[in-house]
């Protein structure tokens, strides 16, 4: 590993990823190779490039959801760095609880659980006791303009935009130092997009780092410190 | 690193010509939920029975850290130590509730049995505790004196859970806990189990053929095929980016797990 700066939250080095499709004659589907970038404290790094170039895959690898085939993903945790590419399942579960968050494009609905409880559970996972967790959840849902009458209901029947706001609230509830965002504002209207932009700016001011995909040019222009064009790492054209 | 709660070391079991489990090793730490998945005949239930001490391995050992901190080989426990462990620090939730419940004893009696085994003889206290547990597993307290034979399938599973958790075990084994239930009943039961695991900090070893159940309840997964572990890892990683050919087949064969 190169010598990290004390400000680094994430250092990605020489990351390679390809899928091997065993059910299709072992076909190799290369995704990205030699990916390298950093995210510093308070920074918002945006992955750019055309669709299919591997942006979402990189986010999933950094979160430990996809397996890195080669390279390192150094995640700052207190005074040390954990290599997500080689960490045990237990270490990744623990890191996700405390320091690494993820907001997916869509809410994966847990049947029957009320919206407020979904968000509060994420805050409890991060170490808050039940009452404080519910208070934080309520604060986030209010901030994201989810009508209070929806809070006690399970989100299965909510609109796409309402579900996505529950999803964002859940992702932010852990107050992780590094948050991965996969197009969090895609299904939101202008007012709610503003709410998300405000939330991100506030967290950055407190030192949190973001690794994100934003398709909305306006949002990207306002939040991105740097845009990394993932095409330079993509294996698709070369393949 | 956390000290393991349970260590399975080189477990093998053969039934005649069939190798049900071959040289399986893993560790489980406190509050960790491990799912063992695979098709029927993959050896997952045999493995569960080996770990839970219901079956003796041909080779290998299971070691467990008792509440006093001592790491003990299960095979070396005395019969009374083993019974005490199973009644207090362990739970076992069976797919077939008639195996996990006494069908001709009231619900309250089913829950109270483990407390009495621990030496509690105070009728009022046991009844109060049973009532609280019924409520916790979402069964109306006025069903306390009814026998489980009058309960629905979903209620019986919830009663089995209450019966097991009343002694605050650290480790619970579950064999297809939602198998055979209607889908709507499954969702409710899964949410209940998920909440209890989180609230009580339970370690769980769960056997299921249902990948969505594994995703919902476990952090880590072992994929078994013909008695061997073909892949293991973080649950969402194994399900979303499976590496072994057999895991890819399993994952691609279900609708949106």
List keywords for this structure.
heterodimer, A: 239 residues, alpha/beta, B: 257 residues, six-stranded mixed β-sheet, four-stranded antiparallel β-sheet, 10 strands
In short:
Chain A is of the alpha/beta class. Chain A has helices at about 55-65, 90-100, 115-125, 130-145, 160-175, 190-205, 215-225; strands at about 10-20, 25-40, 45-50, 70-75, 80-85, 100-105, 180, 210-215, 225-230.
Element order, helices and strands of chain A? EEEHEEHEHHHEHEHE
Helix content of chain B: 25-40%
DSSP strand content of chain A: 25-35%
Mean pLDDT of chain A: 93
Structural class of chain A: alpha/beta
What is the gyration radius of chain A calculated from CA atoms? 18 Å
Distance between the termini of chain A: 28 Å
**How would a textbook summarize the main sheet of chain B?**
6 strands, mixed
Q: What is the 3D form of chain A?
A: globular
Low-confidence stretches of chain B: none
SS element count, helices of chain A? 7
Integer average pLDDT of chain B: 93
Helix content estimate of chain A: 25-40%
Summarize the helices and strands and which ones pair or pack.
The complex is a heterodimer of chains A (about 240) and B (about 260).
Chain A: E1 8-21, E2 27-40, E3 44-48, H1 55-63, E4 70-77, E5 80-83, H2 89-98, E6 100-103, H3 115-125, H4 130-143, H5 160-173, E7 178-182, H6 190-205, E8 209-213, H7 217-223, E9 226-229
Parallel strand pairs in A: 3-8, 3-9, 6-7, 7-8
Antiparallel strand pairs in A: 1-2, 1-4, 4-5
Helix pairs in contact in A: 3-4, 3-5, 4-5
Chain B: E1 6-15, E2 18-28, E3 33-37, H1 44-51, E4 59-65, E5 71-73, H2 79-88, E6 90-93, H3 97-100, H4 107-117, H5 123-136, H6 153-165, E7 171-175, H7 183-200, E8 203-208, H8 211-217, E9 220-225, E10 228-234, H9 235-240, H10 245-252
Parallel strand pairs in B: 3-8, 3-9, 6-7, 7-8
Antiparallel strand pairs in B: 1-2, 1-4, 4-5, 9-10
What does this structure look like?
The complex is a heterodimer of chains A (239) and B (257). The model of chain A has no long low-confidence stretch (mean pLDDT 93). In chain A, helix 3 packs parallel to helix 5 (160-173) and helix 4 (130-143) crosses helix 5. Chain A is built from seven helices and nine strands. The longest helix of chain A is centred in the last third of the chain and has 16 residues, at 190-205. Chain A has helices at residues 55-63, 89-98, 115-125, 130-143, 160-173, 190-205, 217-223; strands at 8-21, 27-40, 44-48, 70-77, 80-83, 100-103, 178-182, 209-213, 226-229. By secondary structure, chain A is an alpha/beta fold. In chain A, strand 4 (70-77) and strand 5 (80-83) form a beta hairpin. Chain B is α/β, with parallel strands linked by helices and 257 residues long. In chain B, 39% of the residues lie in helices and 25% in strands. Chain B has ten helices and ten strands. In chain B, the strands form two sheets. A six-stranded mixed sheet of chain B has the order 6-7-8-3-9-10, with helices on both faces. Chain B has a four-stranded antiparallel sheet with strand order 2-1-4-5, with helices on one face. In chain B, a hairpin with a 2-residue loop joins strand 1 and strand 2 (18-28). In chain B, helix 6 (153-165) runs parallel beside helix 7. The longest helix of chain B has 18 residues, at 183-200. Chain B is globular, with a radius of gyration of 18 Å. The model of chain B has no long low-confidence stretch (mean pLDDT 93). Classes of the chains: A alpha/beta (239), B alpha/beta (257). Chain A binds chain B through residues 19-23, 60, 64-67, 89-90, 92-93, 110-113, 121, 124, and chain B through 2, 29, 32, 187-188, 190-191, 194, 198, 216, 219-220, 233-237, 240-241, 243-245, 248-249, 252.
């Amino acid at each position: 590993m190169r010598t990290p700066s004390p400000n680094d939250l994430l250092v990605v080095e020489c990351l390679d990823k390809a899928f091997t499709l065993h059910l299709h004659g072992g076909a190799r589907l290369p995704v990205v190779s030699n990916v390298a970038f950093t995210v510093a404290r308070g920074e918002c790094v945006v992955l750019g490039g055309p669709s299919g170039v591997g942006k979402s895959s990189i986010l999933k690898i950094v979160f430990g959801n996809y397996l890195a085939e080669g390279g390192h993903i150094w995640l700052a945790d207190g005074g040390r760095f954990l290599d997500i590419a080689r960490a045990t399942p237990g270490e990744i579960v623990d890191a996700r609880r405390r320091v690494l968050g993820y907001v997916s494009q869509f809410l994966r609905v847990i049947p029957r659980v009320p919206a407020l409880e979904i968000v509060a559970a994420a805050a409890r996972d991060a170490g808050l006791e039940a009452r404080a967790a519910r208070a934080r959840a309520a604060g986030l849902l209010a901030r994201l303009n989810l009508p209070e009458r929806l809070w006690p209901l399970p989100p299965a029947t909510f609109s796409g935009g309402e579900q996505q706001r529950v999803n964002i609230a859940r992702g932010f509830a852990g107050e992780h130092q590094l948050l991965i965002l996969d197009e969090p504002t895609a299904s939101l209207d202008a007012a709610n997009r503003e709410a998300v932009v405000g939330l991100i700016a506030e967290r950055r001011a407190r030192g949190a780092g973001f690794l994100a995909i934003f398709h909305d040019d306006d949002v990207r222009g306002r939040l991105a410190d740097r845009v990394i064009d993932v095409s330079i790492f993509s294996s698709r054209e070369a393949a | 690193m956390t000290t393991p709660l349970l260590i399975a070391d080189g477990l093998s079991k053969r039934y005649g010509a069939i190798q049900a489990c071959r040289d399986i090793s893993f560790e489980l730490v406190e509050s960790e939920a491990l799912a063992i998945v695979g098709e029927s005949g993959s050896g997952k239930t045999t493995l569960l029975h080996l770990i839970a001490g219901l079956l003796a391995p041909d080779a290998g050992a299971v070691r467990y850290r008792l509440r006093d901190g001592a790491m003990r080989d299960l095979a070396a426990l005395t019969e009374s130590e083993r019974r005490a462990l199973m009644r207090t620090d362990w739970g076992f939730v069976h797919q077939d509730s008639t195996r996990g419940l006494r069908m001709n004893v009231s619900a309250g009696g089913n829950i109270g049995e483990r407390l009495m085994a621990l030496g509690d003889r105070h009728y009022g206290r046991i009844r109060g505790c049973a009532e609280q547990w019924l409520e916790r597993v979402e069964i109306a307290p006025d069903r306390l004196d009814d026998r489980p034979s009058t309960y629905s399938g979903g209620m019986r599973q919830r009663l089995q859970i209450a019966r097991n958790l009343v002694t605050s075990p650290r480790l619970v084994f579950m064999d297809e806990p939602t198998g055979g239930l209607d889908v709507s009943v499954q969702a409710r039961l899964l949410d209940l189990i998920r909440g209890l695991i989180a609230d009580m900090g339970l370690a769980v070893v769960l056997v299921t053929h249902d990948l969505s159940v594994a995703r919902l309840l476990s952090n880590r997964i072992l994929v078994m095929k013909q008695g061997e572990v073909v892949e293991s890892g973080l649950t969402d990683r194994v399900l979303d980016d499976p590496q072994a050919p057999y895991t890819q087949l399993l994952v691609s064969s279900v609708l949106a797990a």
